[in-house]
Design brief:
Layout: H1 2-7, H2 20-27, H3 31-43, E1 47-50, E2 54-57, H4 70-74, H5 81-84, E3 106-107, H6 120-130, H7 133-139, H8 149-162, E4 172-175, H9 177-189, E5 196-200, H10 204-213, E6 217-223, E7 226-227, H11 231-234, E8 238-241, H12 255-268, E9 271-275, E10 300-305, E11 317-320, H13 323-337, H14 342-353, H15 356-382, E12 387-388, E13 396-400, H16 407-415, E14 419-420, E15 422-423, E16 437-441, H17 447-464
Parallel strand pairs: 3-14, 5-6, 5-8, 8-9, 9-10
Antiparallel strand pairs: 1-2, 4-11, 6-7, 10-11, 12-13, 13-16, 15-16
Helix pairs in contact: 2-3, 6-14, 8-14, 9-10, 15-17
Amino acid sequence: MLVNAILEGHLAPGSALPSSRKLARQLKVARNTVIYAYQHLVDEGFLISRERSGFFVSPEILRGRVRQAPERSQGKDRIRWDEKLALTPDDMRQNLKPLDWYQYPYPFICGQYDQQLFPIADWRECCREAAAISAIHCWARDQVDRDHPDLVDQIHHKLLPRRGVWADPDQILVTVGAQQGLYIAAQLLLNSERRMGFESPGYVDAENTFRIFTGNLSALQVDLRGLVPDENFAACDLVYTTPSHQYPTTVTMPRNRRQEVLEAASKHDVLILEDDYESEFNYVGEPTPALKSMDEDGRVIYIGSLSKTLAPGIRLGFMVGSREFIHQARALRRLMMRHPPSNNQFVIAEFLKRGYHDALVNRLSQTLRRRWQLLGDLLEHHLPGGSRRSTFGGSAIWVKGKPSLDADRLLRLAMAEGILFEPGTVFFHGDNRPARYFRLGFSSIPTDHIEPGIEKLISLLSGMR
């Protein structure tokens, strides 16, 4: 409170503070508490102490600040930004979700986490370790373009082998979430002449990213086995795919289709961006190895993320590729941001080293499997044949409504009842996008809210017929 009053100019430099006795009475705290606080502010340079006179605001604390009236410093914006901006990403199609999603009793949305499942004690332990003097001396230095070696080691020895991927440390690059990995790859590999292929329906922000670098785009077909390596695929220079759990349909690409994709890519010299989306969440049988694990000539660039297992706000991912590609990706990342924050890398490395991530994935898988089973059973009962439960897992179910359904209108009605979900229109490429699809996520909704939420949603659907 005192610090803010000083920094905001409410207490002028040189002004006297109330005596410790008086302030203690006003705040109804012990006098020693006030004396300790005053002394701490002296040590930090906010106050000065004068013997027998008391405490005063230090005249040095605000030195070096520009003194100008706010109304003069702000001025008027007379720039015609619509004429100046070379790019307007906000005009692109977006999958927007309410920021206050957690206030809704039935949040069937994807990409968020269940606050009750976050390992707070484990995370705090790792954060305390990062606050040790030796740790601070390690991560506080500018690493230029290097990543924290302990995190790279954990990715190398723990995360990648789970997916059947074997790579040397110099083939790994840490990113600020998977999204930055997509952006770096697109900027390095695309130009106006090169054709970019992506799944439709698919991840809309991947398409938006590719659109920044080329207008030569190709929406590729997705069937019950994932991406189809047809003649449109063969005509591309670079293809983006989500084989573990196709985004948004949740289809898992089987091993034989993966082999077909790799053979077609090799035959037609197509590079592949593999986004290993939600690969950790498999509830039936053994997980299918990553496409990268089957890559024999280095044409697959693998993108992984810890945001889906830890929490989306952590924003940490990684890329794996050939040495020359990662070398250039590292150089490009340096121009963008040098490297992701080293303190965050340190904490996550500790979290992985202590086995907390493995334990978390196990707990999440058990909880999400129960929700997957419950939600799937409810949809099969209420909408027989209308939902597609993922083959192996994931955190959502793709629903196909009747041809007359307008999922965007349904969402507006559902929000009034406390229900959130994702209409499917945004995931399709082109002008004539179907409105009958929607996606129900279950990563953030409490298990006991699923059944009443679905009953309310089915009631709304019935009323629209």
